[in-house]
Amino acid sequence: MTTEPRFIVLLGPPASGKGTQAARLREMLDLPHVASGDLFRENLKNETDLGLKAKEYMDRGELVPDGITIAMVMDRLGRPDCADGALLDGFPRTIAQAEALDEALTERGHEISLVPCIAVPDEVLIERVSGRRLCRVCGESYHVKFNPPQQAGICDRDGGGLYQRDDDQPETVRQRLRVYWEQTSPLIEYYRQRGVLVEVDGDQSIDAVTEDLRTVVGDS
Ligand code: AMP
Q1: Which residue has its alpha carbon closest to ligand 1 atom 11?
Q2: Count of domains forming the chain
Q3: pTM confidence score
Q4: Catalytic residue among 26, 60, 165, 174
Q5: Which residue from 11, 2, 1, 19 is spatially nearest to 196, judged by alpha carbons?
Q6: What CATH number is given to the structural domain containing 42?
């Protein structure tokens, strides 16, 4: 595996499996996992100003404004553990965010090396999201039908209670998908033109998607 700095963006609609796959890839690549949604949820839990500002947008299934989001993610990428790269998940989600990221990386003499895009049909996403449950302690993601914990409602890793995200309610999910197609999917073309996009079929088992991603990441 190369030791060059690697900045990888995982692209895909809500519930395409980005978070689950990023957790697996992170171990393989030894890169920090920078997930903008997790950063917002952390701020929300700690009741910071940023978290309270973001909450109204998150609850409506809308994107948090670019200015706030870009500042938060750039702050995270500026920490020492990201010097050798990062696995970005949920960011960028707009062309303005992608341009800000390119600019920041160029200033540091880096660039995006790979953008795997996990493709899943909308109907499958809605079914997945409605059964998604997260651990209150470690954030591990489960699905009541497709990836259940050994004991219902309890995290296998640390025994934490599982909960459903407020924005995983069906109406909010439909809104999040609309937002994805309107504002985020143009990034597919943006990265394709830069020669870094690779599409991965996300409508397979979690392990099969991981295998495909392993191949893509290992080959790049
Ligand atoms: P996620 O966990 O990635 O699905 O994100 C949950 C919510 O956080 C999204 O629906 C948005 O409201 C907000 N969010 C996360 N990442 C971004 C981003 N890059 N730009 C704007 N809003 C974001």
Answers
A1: 63
A2: 1
A3: 0.86
A4: 165
A5: 11
A6: 3.40.50.300
